[in-house]
Amino acid sequence: MSGCTERGKPLIAILMAVYEPRMDWLREQLESLEKQTYPNLKLYVRDDCSRTVPFEEIEGCVRNCIRSFPYEIQRNEENLGSNRTFERLTEEAEGEYFAYCDQDDVWLPEKLSVLQEEIARTGALLVCSDMIIIDGQGRRRADSITKIRRRHVFRSGGGLTEGLLISNFITGCTMLVKGDAAKFAVPFCPYMVHDHYIALCCSAAGEIYSVTRPLIRYRVHGKNQTGVMAGVTDRASYRRERIDLPLYKFQWLEEHFPYREEFQEEISLRREWMYARQSNWNRHGGAGTVWKRRKFSPLASLFELSARWLPEGILMWVVHLMQKNMI
To answer: What pTM did the predictor assign?
Structure first.
């Protein structure tokens, strides 16, 4: 599955999902891929059936920016969403390593070289890095993701699966994954972002390492798909995004996670905790189990035990403070 240059470097496949791209940001991202110092690359681009941006325009942008290594570009016949688009890219790509790529960031030239050296040194299945934070105009806002997400903690080594069942510290656009490990994770869990699920599978099968050095410029522009309390706009959406979807996740993992037998107890306990959180939020009991299992996520447990009684306005004021990283 891998290929090597004359210098013996294994092939890294860059997997880029595109949807309704802002063309100046896409061009900047592609140009940063072209400037990578790593010598053996192939780019796979898949447009998720963009409605207003012509496929020919996206194709022309790729053709004009990528000149030093081969690429393939395809278009979904229907809109699949980013998760399934990255799943299809994972299925069709060939390479010893896979690097997942968004359409609106900027990679530092040494990114892939540093990550490939780290994954070779450690024998990890996945490595990731920190990020410089920029805004929509490309202005630097922070030197680390930890400056805008106060509870973000980078971890390395083995034994990370139980923590990853609840929360993710790996951002997909910073990770390099062994290709075989990424393919083994297919099909992706439909209730988890692709990077979180790939990381969960890699942690169950081996080790993950974090490079605390920032290797990309991560654009935070208000329309990012992930973030603190993403998608929460009222009480009902909090339940949907923070309680119902995670419950569906654990139900799915109990049936389909390839390492479910090794982690059956951990998954089942967390599913029971999610059921209790759902009952508690609906004021139908469950508070005792939420408190008993609070170690799974102390902040979520304590917040929901009190927030279920808050008026809507106060609840959303607290959520807004969380989204702004103020609490």
So the answer is: 0.92
